[in-house]
């Protein structure tokens, strides 16, 4: 038999444990291993089961409001469309490419007309060529005719060229604004002609 206090084996018939002095009035049939296990469990204290973290609940949320990724984070599905590409050959937004075709008049109009395949950009590029190319042509004609006798009406020529310069500035600003706003703004007669050329490849 074993001592119920310390677990040591005692002599049969003994009334006290020789190791710890505990009384042995009621013989203990508890095995040493069971007593040792109880003492160990008493020293360690009660064990509490570890509960798992509760799963986030989506009750009451619509399909659009419910989180789509782990822990409520959004999962990206697919790639977002590139900002500013818009299918132009230069990689610029259509409205910006159309605006740039007016920046240097017919020069930038030629550049964008030949490198772009987008009809919207090509339309504004051709309109830039026709408008500002025509204004440039008028200046060239005046400069050629001036030494041949046009100087005699210098006052009229000066007023004409001044009004033409003012008109070119107004058209330059107006057409750039309309192009940047994404409008297919057509000038009378010239716009229809530019649209015809824009569809050609």
TrEMBL record:
Keyword annotations: Membrane, Transmembrane, Transmembrane helix
Residue ranges the record marks as coiled coil: none
Membrane spanning residue stretches: 96-115, 127-150, 156-177
Membrane topology: Multi-pass membrane protein
Stretches for region Disordered: 24-87
Main location as per UniProt: membrane
Polar residues bias spans: 26-43
InterPro entries assigned: MamF_MmsF, Zinc_ribbon_dom
GO cellular component, one term: membrane
Domain (Zinc-ribbon): residue spans on this chain: 2-24
Localization (cell): Membrane
Xref: PANTHER family: UPF0132 DOMAIN PROTEIN (AFU_ORTHOLOGUE AFUA_3G10255)
Protein name per its UniProtKB record: Zinc-ribbon domain-containing protein
Organism: Syntrophothermus lipocalidus (strain DSM 12680 / TGB-C1)
């Amino acid at each position: 038999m074993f001592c119920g206090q310390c677990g040591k084996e005692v002599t049969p018939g003994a009334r006290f444990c020789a190791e710890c002095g505990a009384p042995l009035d009621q013989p203990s049939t508890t095995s040493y291993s069971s007593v040792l296990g109880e003492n160990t469990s008493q020293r360690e204290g009660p064990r509490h089961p570890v509960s798992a973290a509760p799963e986030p609940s989506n009750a009451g949320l619509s399909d659009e409001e419910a989180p789509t990724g782990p822990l409520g984070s959004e999962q990206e599905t697919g790639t977002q469309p590139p900002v500013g590409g818009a299918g132009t050959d230069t990689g610029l937004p259509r409205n910006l490419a159309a605006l740039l075709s007016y920046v240097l008049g017919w020069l930038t109009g030629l550049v964008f007309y030949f490198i772009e395949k987008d009809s919207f950009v090509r339309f504004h590029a051709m309109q830039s060529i026709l408008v500002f190319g025509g204004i440039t042509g008028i200046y060239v004609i005046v400069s050629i005719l001036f030494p041949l006798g046009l100087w005699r009406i210098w006052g009229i020529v000066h007023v004409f060229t001044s009004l033409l310069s003012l008109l070119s500035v107004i058209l330059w600003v107006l057409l750039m604004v309309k192009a940047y706003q994404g409008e297919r703004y057509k000038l009378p007669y010239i716009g229809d002609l530019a649209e015809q050329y824009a569809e050609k490849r």
